[in-house]
Amino acid sequence: MNLNEWFEKGLTADEYISSMKTNKEGMLLIYEHFSLGEEFKAKLEAIKQKNLRAIVLTEDWCGDAMLNTPVLLRIADAASMEVRFVLRDQNLELMDQYLTNGTSRAIPIFIFIDEEGKEVAVWGPRAPEVQALVEKGRASLPSQDAPDFKEKQMALYKSFGENYQTDSSIWKTVANSIITTILK
Length: 184
What we know:
alpha+beta, Glutaredoxin, four-stranded mixed sheet, 9 helices
C-alpha cells in the first residue's frame, strides 16, 4: 500500500479520540492547555504553504503518544494540515517501515506526506530532549533482576506521564522538534 492509501485508511482525529480507552484525558488536557506561541507563527506559515498531510502511527496506551499527538494536532490546526491515525498493532506492515533504530516499533511516528503521497518528513517517537530525559530516568533504575525493578520502573513511567501533562516547556520542546523536522 502506498502512503496515500494508508492516509485514506486512517482514522480522523475525532474518530481516533472517540475510540480511545487509555490516556484520553491526558491527551485532551494537553490539547486544551497547549497553544502555539508567536515564536512558531512564521514557521507555521512555511509549513502551510507545503500543503502537507500527516499519518500518525500510534496506540492510545502510549504515554509518548499522549504527549506528542495533541502538540501535532495544534500544529496541524495552525498549518491547515489534515491528520489521520493508523493503529500500530493492527498495521505492522506500515509500522515495520518506520522502526526506531531499525529494530523498535516505538510510537508515535508522524509521517508527513505531500499532495502526491510522497514522504516529506518523519518524526518520532520523541523529541531529542525528551529522549534524553527518558534515558536519564532509565539510567537511575536498579538492574532488571533487582526485586524492586518493576516497581521503580512503573513509578518512573508514572512520573513521566505526570510531567508530560503538566510541564508546558516539554510541549514547546516537542512542537519545536516537530516543526524543525518538517521544515528540513
